[in-house]
C-alpha cells in the first residue's frame, strides 16, 4: 500500500505579500526551499493560522535570504500580509519506507529567518 505522508513543512511563516494579479503560486525564500527540500513547482498545501483557510498551490523560488512568502493569484484571497501560515509538501511512499521516514520541519521567526530545523514533532499532551 502507498501512503501520502508529510515530506516537509515551513512552520508559522509570515506572509509578506498577497499579489492577486501575479500568476498563481506561492513565492518562498529560496533558502527556505533548499533547507526544507521543497522543490520549485512542487505542489504545496498552505494552512492559514489567522483565518483557517486551507488551500493548494505550487512553490516558486523567491530571492534567497529575502524572507519572502508571497501568496499569488486566486490564493491571494486566502491570505494577507502579516498572516501566519504553515506550508506543507507531501510525498508518496510504501508502508515500510513510511515507518522509518522523518519529515524535514523548518521553523522561522516573524521575519521568516530560520530559527531551527527538526525531523520529528513532540507528542501532543492530553
TrEMBL record:
<feature type="active site" description="Schiff-base intermediate with substrate; via pyruvic acid">
    <location>
        <position position="25"/>
    </location>
</feature>
<dbReference type="GO" id="GO:0004068">
    <property type="term" value="F:aspartate 1-decarboxylase activity"/>
</dbReference>
<dbReference type="GO" id="GO:0015940">
    <property type="term" value="P:pantothenate biosynthetic process"/>
</dbReference>
<dbReference type="Pfam" id="PF02261">
    <property type="entry name" value="Asp_decarbox"/>
</dbReference>
<keyword id="KW-0963">Cytoplasm</keyword>
<dbReference type="InterPro" id="IPR009010">
    <property type="entry name" value="Asp_de-COase-like_dom_sf"/>
</dbReference>
<keyword id="KW-0456">Lyase</keyword>
<keyword id="KW-0670">Pyruvate</keyword>
<feature type="binding site">
    <location>
        <position position="57"/>
    </location>
    <ligand>
        <name>substrate</name>
    </ligand>
</feature>
<keyword id="KW-0566">Pantothenate biosynthesis</keyword>
<keyword id="KW-0704">Schiff base</keyword>
<keyword id="KW-0865">Zymogen</keyword>
<dbReference type="GO" id="GO:0006523">
    <property type="term" value="P:alanine biosynthetic process"/>
</dbReference>
<dbReference type="GO" id="GO:0005829">
    <property type="term" value="C:cytosol"/>
</dbReference>
<comment type="pathway">
    <text>Cofactor biosynthesis; (R)-pantothenate biosynthesis; beta-alanine from L-aspartate: step 1/1.</text>
</comment>
<protein>
    <recommendedName>
        <fullName>Aspartate 1-decarboxylase</fullName>
        <ecNumber>4.1.1.11</ecNumber>
    </recommendedName>
</protein>
<feature type="binding site">
    <location>
        <begin position="73"/>
        <end position="75"/>
    </location>
    <ligand>
        <name>substrate</name>
    </ligand>
</feature>
<feature type="active site" description="Proton donor">
    <location>
        <position position="58"/>
    </location>
</feature>
<comment type="similarity">
    <text>Belongs to the PanD family.</text>
</comment>
<keyword id="KW-0068">Autocatalytic cleavage</keyword>
<dbReference type="InterPro" id="IPR003190">
    <property type="entry name" value="Asp_decarbox"/>
</dbReference>
<comment type="function">
    <text>Catalyzes the pyruvoyl-dependent decarboxylation of aspartate to produce beta-alanine.</text>
</comment>
<comment type="subunit">
    <text>Heterooctamer of four alpha and four beta subunits.</text>
</comment>
<feature type="modified residue" description="Pyruvic acid (Ser)">
    <location>
        <position position="25"/>
    </location>
</feature>
<keyword id="KW-0210">Decarboxylase</keyword>
Amino acid at each position: 500500500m502507498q501512503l501520502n505522508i508529510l515530506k516537509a513543512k515551513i512552520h508559522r511563516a509570515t506572509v509578506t505579500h498577497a499579489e492577486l494579479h501575479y500568476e498563481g503560486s506561492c513565492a518562498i525564500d529560496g533558502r527556505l526551499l533548499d533547507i526544507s527540500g521543497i522543490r520549485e513547482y512542487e505542489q504545496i498545501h498552505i494552512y492559514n493560522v489567522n483565518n483557517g483557510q486551507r488551500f493548494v498551490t505550487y512553490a516558486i523560488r523567491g530571492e534567497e535570504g529575502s524572507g519572502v512568502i508571497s501568496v499569488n493569484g486566486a490564493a491571494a484571497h486566502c491570505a494577507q500580509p502579516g498572516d501566519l501560515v504553515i506550508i506543507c509538501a507531501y510525498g508518496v511512499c510504501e508502508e515500510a519506507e513510511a515507518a522509518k521516514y522523518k519529515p524535514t520541519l523548518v521553523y522561522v521567526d516573524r521575519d521568516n529567518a530560520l530559527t531551527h530545523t527538526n525531523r520529528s514533532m513532540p507528542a501532543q499532551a492530553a
